[in-house]
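Tokens for ATP-binding protein. Go.
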Amino acid sequence: MATVELRFSALPEHVRTARLVAAAVARRAGVDESVLDEVRLAVGEACSRAVGLHQRGIKGGAVRVALTDQEKRFVIEVGDGAGALSELAEPSDDDSGDSSDDTLGLAVITGLVEDLEVGRDDAGGLIRMSWPVQVG
């Protein structure tokens, strides 16, 4: 089992890099070519969601992406590093709709990934996604 880990400052310009790395590692792990666009899009949405949490005023922490090549699955975990504050769900009166963007992002990920878990770890929110790999 091989794992590639990325950590980046919560800036939108780093999301593209995470998408490109995820697609390259997925291809090398044996994920079917027809699914690589889904991998790329799902990672982009998960990372954008994490960056969005930081842009709403959460200080510190970094976005974490772990790409793991298991025997029959390719697993990607995206952590927001926002601690307990990553559960900001209720928009304030002056909110510009970021919470609805968050909900839309999760809906897009749900449509792209059959094996999806949204939860938490010690550092904050965590989205875990996986795809089958071609064996042989």
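The helical segments are 15-29, 36-55, 98-112.
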